[in-house]
Amino acid sequence: MLIPPVDITRSIASVTEVQPSVNTSGAAASEDTGISFKDTIKKAVGEVNHLQNEADKMAVQLASGDIEDVHKAMIAMQKAKLALNFTIQVRNKVIDAYQEIMRMQV
Fold this sequence. Notes:
The protein has four helices and no strands. The chain is mainly alpha-helical. α3 packs antiparallel against α4.
């Protein structure tokens, strides 16, 4: 079985393609594109939920013997685990920022 090597340049290229949009009026970029913070969070949580559901489905297939490639199941489970851990860390940072703002004296 041939395992392809990890191409780090492809990963970096996808990150460098993201360009911040600059609004000439000085307003936030999300107002210009019409995408709200709520929609962004909802989309991100939906993607994490999709990964979790996919990992659960693969785990059931693995347990029942329906899946031949164990690697795909393990990769799906690890993707779901990493996405959930990342979401939890983002939530913790948001809560810390909120608490810090609440401690500020005006």
